[in-house]
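anyone else get weird line breaks when pasting these?? whatever heres mine. first is seq + tokens for prot A
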Amino acid sequence: MTSKAAISLTTGLEDAEKVTVAFLVAVGAAESGRPTTMFLTKEAVRLVTGEVGRDAVACEGCPPLGSLLDRYAAAGGTYLVCPICFDSKKLDQASLLANATLGGTVQLWEWIGEGATTFSY
């Protein structure tokens, strides 16, 4: 059985390089066949709404955010979006990507179950 991967991300495009690294790790896990979820909190919740530009690029030679979002979705990756953070920013649930759901720490632990490899950014 392939082990799960959980990537926690707290930052948005105010630190685009950190976002890129987190997404590259998540895409790598998902594309290698691991069940993968990203737990998004704080400003990271904006990354899976229409509020953030899909053409955002962290650095010269870095892939645009949109291509990472697309690859992650194509590989079956999911997002668990902190509802407290999401609601505090007055974001619209209808703007969430299809592979994103609102859920907090209880849902994260339920998803992890018997264990997962974790990364935090």
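and prot B, same format (seq, then tokens)
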Amino acid sequence: MDNTILSQNTPAWRFQVWIAFALSFGLTLFGLYCAEIDIWTKGYLAMGVIFTVGSCFSLAKTVRDDHEYDKVVNRVSAAKTEQILKEYEGK
């Protein structure tokens, strides 16, 4: 009994996500570049923006991996339960 629902993102959704990411990251860096502050402050803020983006990617990957792991554990548990029920009904 396999209740797995496979879903794949559409090309339009992937395009929208990548465009939103590129625009937000690019415009943030452009705004930082145009800001009337000294170069050391710009550098510090740019490092903060880049670190935040990298952390977001890492967090998203970790959440996805945890979700995938939970799905596998639940499937194994369900298979074991189903096997035990079949053995019980067979007696």
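btw re prot B: The chain has a mean pLDDT of 86. The chain is about 85% helix and 0% strand.
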